[in-house]
Each structure stands twice: as C-alpha cells, then as structure tokens.
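Thread: Newbie trying to understand structure tokens

Hi all, I'm a second-year student working on a class project, and my supervisor (Dr. K.) asked me to get a predicted structure for one chain before our next meeting. I've only ever worked with sequences, so writing a 3D structure as a token string is new to me. If someone could post the tokens and maybe explain what I'm looking at, I'd be very grateful. Here's the chain:
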Amino acid sequence: MKFSRLLPLAALWIAGCGLALADTATCLQCHDTVDPKQYEASVHGQAGMACVDCHTSLQGVTEFPHAEKLRPADCGSCHEEVTTDYARSIHAQTSALGKGAAPTCASCHGVHDMLPASDPKSPTHKSNESQLCGKCHGMNGLKDREVLLPYVFESYSRSVHAKRIGQGNMQAASCADCHGTHDLRGSADTESSIHRWKIPETCGRCHPKVNEEYLAGIHGKAFKLGISDSPTCTNCHGEHEILGRDAADSATFNRQISFQLCLDCHTSPKILRKYGSRMGAAAEFVDSYHGLSLKLNSPRAATCVSCHKSHEIRPKRDPASTVAAGNVTGTCARCHPGATPEFARSYTHATANLHENRLAGFFQTFYVLMILAVIGSMVVHNVLILYYFFRRKHHHESRAPRLTRFHAQEIWMHILLTITFIGLAVTGFALKFSDSFFFEWLRALGMTEPVRSVLHRIFAVGLLATGIWHLAYLAFSVKGRAQLKALWLRWEDLRLTVVNLRYHLGLAKERPLFRRYDYSEKAEYWALVWGTAVMAVTGFVLWFPVEATGIFPFWIIRVSEVIHYYEAILATLAILVWHFFFVIMHPEEYPMNLSWLHGKITVELAEEKYPLWAQEELAKIGTGPAAPGPDESGEHPAQ
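---
Reply by user tm_fold:
Sure, no problem. This is what the structure looks like when written as tokens:
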C-alpha cells in the first residue's frame, strides 16, 4: 500500500481520538461527581480509556442529555477471563438471594478511582484486603440473613497472619491467598480451595514442610484414605483466628493443646465407638503427672506433642515414630536426661491404664478396700467415742439446774425445718451437679430425675407448711410473741457485736451482756426468714412457669433460676459455716448444743452466754441463795 493512501486513514484515526476526548469532557460537564484528577490517577485513566469505553451504550450518541436508564458498565468486555471466573464464584451464586447480596466488580475495586492491587492505596492491596472483605464478612455485614455467617473479619484480625501483614510482612496469608480472588468458592464446593479435602493443599502452599510432615503422619494418612474424622489444619489451628503457639488463648498453646485438641477426639464417645477403645488411650494422660502438672500450668509439663510431635504423628508400630520401641527412650531423654529403656517403659498409656496394667489395678482395688475398711472402722470407733461424750454431756446437763430455752412447738418446728432443708439441698443440688460422685451414687440407688423432682417438691411443701405454722405460732401464741420480741433486731446489737469481738481479741476484759439471743442468732433467724421467702417465691415461679409468665414478663423464669440457685448456695454455706460452728464446733457447745432436742439450757451456761436473760428467768422463779434446788430431774420446780 502506498504512503499516499495511508494519509486519509491516519486523519480519520486522529479525528476519532479527538471525538473520544471530547466525549469524556462532555460527560464531565454534567457528571461533576466524578473527580477528573482521581480518574486520571486510576488504572483506567492511566490507560487513556474514555467514559464510553466502559459505558458502551453511549458510543455513537450525539444528542445530550442522554437517556436516563442505561446498560450498566460491562467489565467483561475487557476482562473476559475474570468475568468467567466470577460467574462460577460463590459471590455470583449468592446474587440469587437478592439485590445487594453479592459484591460486584465495583464493590471491591471501586468505580472511577480503581487502582491496581499493587498500589498500597488500593482496597485490593494485600494490606487492605481484610478490611475490604470485612465490609461484608464482619459484625457489620450480612446481618439480615436467616443463616448467621461467621464474623470472619474480627477473627482474622486477631490471627497471626493479620499481625504479620500489619508488621509489613506481605508474605503472610490474607483472604485471597486461601480463598482465591475472582473465582473464590464456598467450602461445600469440591473445587474450592477451602473445601475440607483441599485444606492441606491450600495451607501447604505457604507451609510446605508442615504439610509434608502432616501427610506422613497417621492423621494425614487417614485423611488421604478419605476418613473424614481425621483432623486437618483447621481442626487444630482454626479457620480465621489462627493464633501462634505463644498466645495464651490459642488452641495450640501449651496447656490447651492436650485438653482442648487431642482429648476432644481421643476421649469422644462417638470416636471411641467408631474406631475402638484404644483411641481413648489419651484419657490416662489426664491423671498422669504430666496431665496433673499441666492443669497447674507448669511450663515444663509434657503435652501430647512433647512425645508424639505436632504434625508428623506416627503410631507406635511405625519404626519412624517418636514412641516406637527404638525411639521412645530418646524421646523421654529430651525431658529426662539419662533415661533408660526401663524408665521409658514405666509410663505409657498402657501402663497408666489400670485395666491393662493388672498389677497396678490390683493395688488400686486393694487400697480402695483398705480405705473403706480402715477409714470405716475409724469412723465407727470415733462415733462411739462421740456418743459417749453426747451421753456424758446430756447426763451432766440433766442433773444441773436448767432453764427452758425452747418450747415443744419450737423444737418440732426446728426438727421439721432441719429435715426439709437438708432434703431440699440434696435434691436441688442433685440436679445441678448430677455428674458428681455423691449424686451419681444417689442416682444408682434409684433417685432418678422423676423421683428427685417429686421429692424436691415434697420437701418444699414441707418447708412452707413449717413456715406457715411458725407464723401462726408467732401471731397467736403468747410464747411465740415472746420469742419474736426476743429475736427482734435492736441498735444495741451493733454495740454488743463490737464488744464481743473486742473481748475475743483480748482487747476487753468483760464479756458482752446478751439477752435471750445474741446478735449471731438474731442475724441467722432473720436470714432464714428472708431466705425462705425468696426460695418460696422463686420456687413457685419455677414450679409453675406457664402461670408465672401469664402474670410477669418472660425474664422472670431465668431470673428466678439464678436467684433460686445462688440463694440455695448462700443458705447451705451459712448453715455449714455459721450455724454448725455455734451449735457444734464452738468450744462451749462441743460436741453439740443439745437444746434443739430437749429445749433446755443449764443455768451455768445461760449465765455465761446470756446473763441478762438468765437473771430475768431466775428472778421469775425466785432462785437465789434460799431458793429451792433442782428436783431429781435436775430442773427447778418452777419449770
């Protein structure tokens, strides 16, 4: 072709370029929301692309303003391969959920300010990638769905990968390294890089040595055989919140690696039924010195990986295993210098198992029987001695002058209160702590849940009936009103509390002058009244939840559960710590205050503990130097 013939074509090309530039300038006259400088700095602006190159429906249009509704920009006209990949991705598939459900090209890359992924200012740059994905895959994204998606961004932000990128290490894994970019697929897709059967391969791209060790170990071999129960990388390290081993809350941290990872599978009833009981050999580790010291967070304690390694875990029958017969001594010697083969044999899962180690099992049985026989005989022996002191104290008190402290009705109320309280405590805590030894023993004797729940309600009715009887006694009985008056809290009790503490600390020489009841007894009585009322109200709510929610808001059920449980703990501990001290362990009362059985107290003890009340009572019966002494029963005639 001659040069003269090329001139018209060149002129036409130059004119076309001018029209394109004119088109861009024309667009910017109306679309002032587009920043010309920002567009010129973008990857499209740098390539010299005009508006109509993306908005192809405007090509050839000469009349302005143009139509209001136009076809959206088609990225596929230039990025055909990327568009094809995106069409197969999970993002494209989720578009079926509705408008805005799936990200588009612009969602990730921007519109007129698109920058290349190599630019640190680009949202697709590796340092910004997690924030970009986190717009949807975080606490603030995709909330209004029937299926709650994981808070991926928050989890990944805490990971060792995110921290490495934050430190400037661009070799660390970001979202795209594991999931892909435009063709990323869901974990259920067999072609996905995060499908279960692709996980080792995906992680192995950055961790080839670890992946090689994993595949050489028993877990990797089982994985290659298609055994789905075999753990992969994410089972132990997590998916997004992958923490370093030095992080205290990491699943691979020294303490957690055994109790949170290995034992989860190797003590799982499902796994044991499926693969046999020897899979549960790790259970012996918990009761070994290794396991016990690990519970105490000993930094030197051996974990499962100390003996079996982290990734290349081989069974004992494999000659290359760290616990094989030819290697186990060397493995032990890493922590126990000078270890011998006999030492290495001294602790294995088999020797720790008392069913397999018959000699150790024999001595366990021997000592269990020995403990029952020896300690049982000690208990019987001491009970006999205690019974002697009970009889001696009763004999002494019955012959000494006594005052009436409790009347017959009060004694029976206390007995019923004791029975119902203990019954409620046992049957209540049996529900909360059903897997403890004591309550397992009760269950073996027949206290199943139906039996327990009925007994609990029977004891509750008994306690309420006793409470109603007591209220009637206080209201309609002269003796009851006198007791109520004596138990009423007064400002004087605060002063006497201080005096009593000073006396027992050696700071005061004189004991406090108490009336019929001291401050400890009054506090315990009113605590009992309060506790009974609280337990009754919350107990009825839990007994009749449907009726309760017909009167009160829904939260009444859970609030009642919490109050009922913790009030029960408070009451039980108060009885053990406070009441039992003053009526059993107190030196003046040991081996027990017997007033709850006969309602009497010796004049000697009354004058020592309750001097003002003793004076009043003795004055009523005229006891003095010339007053008549006790009769044969040891009681004053006035009694």
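A couple of things are worth pointing out once you decode it. The mean pLDDT is 87. The first strand starts at residue 402 and ends at 404. Feel free to ask follow-ups in this thread.
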